[in-house]
Amino acid sequence: MLIGKVVGTLVATRKAERMEGLKFLVVKQVDIEGRETDDYVIAADVVQAGMGDYVLYARGSSARQTVQTDRRPCDGVVMAVVDTWDVQGEVKYQKE
Length: 96
Fold this sequence. Notes:
0% of the residues lie in helices and 50% in strands. It has 96 residues and is mostly beta strands. A hairpin with a 5-residue loop joins strand 2 and strand 3 (36-45).
């Protein structure tokens, strides 16, 4: 799992039948301090994340391990919205 920040959405009106019904988000990976990196992924959202949310996401075959993405050609999935994280007792992020 990776930590990311939702920075956008992606709309595709024409897509493979197996992808119907999925919402797509643009997610920038962040480091453990919460700084955005250059890495990003387009991920299927199965938890109703929103713009600016910090999320946990998975890539590759792990992205197909949720009920909603099982046997679908997904390479990224947002599977949790982060409420808080700390590193060695220091809070790095706290959702308002």
